[in-house]
């Protein structure tokens, strides 16, 4: 389902035969963010602290860092598969 959402097709005539341009824009962003989170999972805590303007946000736990690392790696895998699927469809 995620791959179908990422591989939105742009079509000039409405026939659905356009190129999946959105995946080539969105997927690299997911790959960059996923690699960043997999390498340095503390970034998620810093982003949350900045976004919610809460300087007293709790430090991330060891379990939370592992979950963030795994989800970052998962983002990279899903985005890579989406690019491969989109490239082979066109």
Spell out the blueprint of helices and strands.
Layout: H1 2-6, H2 21-39, H3 42-51, H4 62-89
Helix pairs in contact: 2-4
What does this 3D model show about the protein?
The protein is mostly helical. It has one domain (2-89). The chain contains four helices and no strands. It has helices spanning 2-6, 21-39, 42-51, 62-89. The longest helix is centred in the C-terminal third of the chain and has 28 residues, at 62-89. It is elongated, with a radius of gyration of 17 Å. It starts with a helix and ends with a helix. It holds the Pfam family DUF6199. Residues 29-85 form the DUF6199 domain. It comes from Nakamurella sp. A5-74. This is DUF6199 family natural product biosynthesis protein. The chain crosses the membrane at residues 20-39, 66-87.
